[in-house]
Amino acid sequence: RKHIISIPDFSREELELVVATAASLKAAPRNDLLRGRLIASCFFEPSTRTRLSFETSVQRLGGTVIGFSDGANTSAKKGETLADTIKIISSYTDAVVMRHPKEGAARLASEFSAVPVINGGDGANQHPTQTLLDLFTIRETQGRLDKLSLAFVGDLKYGRTVHSLAQALSLFDCHFYFVAPDALAMPDYLCEELDEKGIAYTLCDSLEEVIPLVDILYMTRVQRERFDEAEFKKIQGQYVLRADMFRHARDNLRVLHPLPRVDEITPDVDATPYAYYFEQAKNGVFARQALLALVLNETV
Ligand code: CP
């Protein structure tokens, strides 16, 4: 596959290949797979984990990185189109990792790029590399990707990570619980996709009720930057996970969160055996190393 834009572009076998490759790179780290490769890291929207784990991935595999972390300091500010920007950058690099606030920006960039484009998040649309590290983490904690019960909690409307992950797991016969305020419910188009595939999902408004039912509790932050402040205040703090809520949890339950968290997981959860979000974030390096190596046709 040349470009990594959207999870529905992947087959189940391709997802499994990235997960298996990430596991092998975590078990036996490599330092040579990207030697001589130059990767552009173009972030038009803020990021901590995605940008730095991509840059770490490249440098730990022997490659080098150029790029920017603030689109306002680029010639986009002077009116240059994304198409022109990508034509130029892709003429002297081996791959372009890009985050952009507009849905569809990564797909557009791929149409003008001479080298693979990897979507590091496009608006409220997709975050495919987060999904790859999530799948890797789910398999690492549960030993499989099939026949799991997962709850997605929080902002399911604007949270691009849950969109990508639900689409990926719809290839693996899982059961979903969607826990969200009405204003932040899973988008209709995604529920319709699940209906068409015959995937079971349950809408639920109680966080405490779903905890005993699931293997993975996937918490998310309300995406304050994507909607009106008055609306945000109405739903802020509605779903907060605390350490005293695990009384009836399964032993194998793991709490994931794409991070950053704001107030949806209290810090006392970090010390419970269920918290796995920091290891999940660390897994971003291995999943992105796997992806880069596979996209650039390196044998792992
Ligand atoms: N999970 C994630 O995308 O984090 P950043 O916004 O910090 O990259």
Automatic annotation (TrEMBL):
Positions with a binding annotation for carbamoyl phosphate: R49, T50, R99, H127, Q130, L259, P260
Start and end residues of each Aspartate/ornithine carbamoyltransferase Asp/Orn-binding domain: 147-294
InterPro entries in the cross-refs: Asp/Orn_carbamoyltranf_P-bd (IPR006132), Asp/Orn_carbamoylTrfase (IPR006130), Asp/Orn_carbamoylTrfase_sf (IPR036901), Asp_carbamoyltransf (IPR002082), Asp_carbamoyltransf_Asp/Orn-bd (IPR006131)
GO MF term list: amino acid binding; aspartate carbamoyltransferase activity
Class in the EC hierarchy, top level: transferase
EC number(s) from the headed UniProt entry: 2.1.3.2
Protein keywords: Pyrimidine biosynthesis, Transferase
Domain Aspartate/ornithine carbamoyltransferase carbamoyl-P binding: 2-140
The UniProt record lists the keyword ATP-binding: no
UniProt KW Phosphoprotein keyword: no
Example GO BP: 'de novo' pyrimidine nucleobase biosynthetic process
PROSITE patterns referenced in this protein's UniProt entry, alphabetically: CARBAMOYLTRANSFERASE
Residues the record lists as binding L-aspartate: K78, R160, R221
GO annotations of cellular component type: cytosol
Pathway(s) served: Pyrimidine metabolism; UMP biosynthesis via de novo pathway; (S)-dihydroorotate from bicarbonate: step 2/3
Top-level taxonomic group: Bacteria
Catalytic activity: carbamoyl phosphate + L-aspartate = N-carbamoyl-L-aspartate + phosphate + H(+)
Protein purpose: Catalyzes the condensation of carbamoyl phosphate and aspartate to form carbamoyl aspartate and inorganic phosphate, the committed step in the de novo pyrimidine nucleotide biosynthesis pathway.
Quaternary state and interactors: Heterododecamer (2C3:3R2) of six catalytic PyrB chains organized as two trimers (C3), and six regulatory PyrI chains organized as three dimers (R2).
Family indicated by similarity: Belongs to the aspartate/ornithine carbamoyltransferase superfamily. ATCase family.
Name of the protein in its database record: Aspartate carbamoyltransferase
Organism: Paludibacterium paludis
Lineage: Bacteria, Pseudomonadati, Pseudomonadota, Betaproteobacteria, Neisseriales
GN (gene name): pyrB
